[in-house]
Automatic annotation (TrEMBL):
The organism of origin for this protein: Hibiscus syriacus (Rose of Sharon)
Presence of the UniProt keyword Transmembrane in the record: yes
InterPro entries: MFS_trans_sf (IPR036259), Nodulin-like (IPR010658)
PANTHER family: F1C9.29 PROTEIN-RELATED, UNCHARACTERIZED NODULIN-LIKE PROTEIN
Alphabetical keyword list: Membrane, Transmembrane, Transmembrane helix
Pfam families documented for this protein: Nodulin-like
Listed name of the protein: Nodulin-like domain-containing protein
Length: 308
């Protein structure tokens, strides 16, 4: 049970799940539905503001609901299950649906940055890289399923992100990553880098192969199965770390200071050192004034005592 708790609270597990959410965050690249899509993708201050009020699972839930409502209504309209709406109404729906991606991005970035305060740059770079691969990943999945019409692509845009987010909604969260800093973090990041590069190289190779030669559907299925295998490779890292490392006891967790507390203690220590320096300077100046007021004979004796 302790190993399972260590696995669930492992910051690398949260990071890997955030990468999986980023796979869905770029799903809007597949749909060329107009300028409203790009507007929805660019208005991210709503997600940022709500993330300051709501927990991260609430932010993800809002994004999933927006994705379902926006693209879901578009799918109903395209398939004839809902009445045709005017252009301005369709633009609003597309804006709402694509704006849900900003909530996925915000939750993934905020949780990962809070769990890796000492490695913010690499974490953000890896997450944005995985978001860039999302279009190619979902295209491969769509090709494997072999939907009969283009409306099915919109249906995948509606259902896919919501399923992934709901499955990971309570895992992507801050887990006190500053307490989990290890000397092997450099090797862990190297493993994630290599997994990302391997996935990108594989997707590029598959895309070039499909453009150069005619690929059968059976081969497409094999390519997609290999793709799924490459996607789940990073989960090996938190599993190994949870099994190999001893869990931190509650007493040790209390004794471990947070980064904010460390910075506050450093600032207080600096202020105290400055006060001590100022007091020493003031004492020296007072002693100098006292010596100057003494007669010449006593002044020499006093100077000798101070120098002793």
């Amino acid at each position: 049970m302790e190993k399972f708790q260590a696995f669930v609270n492992n910051r690398w597990l949260v990071f890997v799940d955030a990468m999986w959410i980023q796979y869905c965050a770029g799903i809007g690249q597949l749909s060329k539905l107009g300028v409203a899509k790009y507007l929805g993708d660019s208005v991210g201050f709503l997600a940022g503001s709500l993330s300051e009020i709501l927990p991260l699972w609430g932010t993800l839930l809002v994004g999933a609901l927006q994705n379902l409502i926006g693209y879901g209504w578009v799918w109903l309209t395209v398939t004839g299950r809902a009445p045709v709406l005017p252009l301005w109404a369709m633009c609003i729906l597309i804006f709402v649906g694509n704006n849900g991606e900003t909530y996925f991005n915000t939750a993934a970035l905020v949780s990962s940055v809070q769990n890796f305060p000492e490695s913010k740059g690499p974490v953000v770079g890896i997450l944005k890289g995985f978001a860039g691969l999302s279009g190619a990943i979902l295209t491969q999945i769509y090709t494997m399923i072999n939907f009969p019409d283009q409306a099915s692509l919109i249906f995948m845009v509606v259902v896919g992100p919501a399923m992934v987010v709901v499955a990971l909604i309570f895992i992507v969260r801050p887990v006190g990553g500053h307490r989990q800093v290890r000397p092997s973090d450099g090797l862990s990041f190297s493993f994630i880098y290599r997994a990302c590069l391997l996935l990108a190289a594989y997707l590029m190779g598959v895309m070039l192969l499909k453009d150069l030669v005619s690929v059968s559907h059976t081969l497409v299925i094999i390519f997609t199965v290999i793709l799924f295998f490459l996607l789940i490779i990073p989960i090996v890292l938190p599993i190994i770390l949870s099994i190999s490392d001893e869990p931190i006891g509650p007493v040790e967790e209390v004794l471990l200071p947070k980064p904010e507390q460390q910075e506050a203690s450093k600032s207080e220590q600096g202020v105290q050192e400055q006060e001590v320096m100022y007091s020493e300077v003031n004492m020296r100046s007072l002693r100098t004034q006292e010596v100057d007021l003494l007669p010449a004979s006593e002044r020499q004796k006093r100077i000798a005592q101070l120098q002793a």
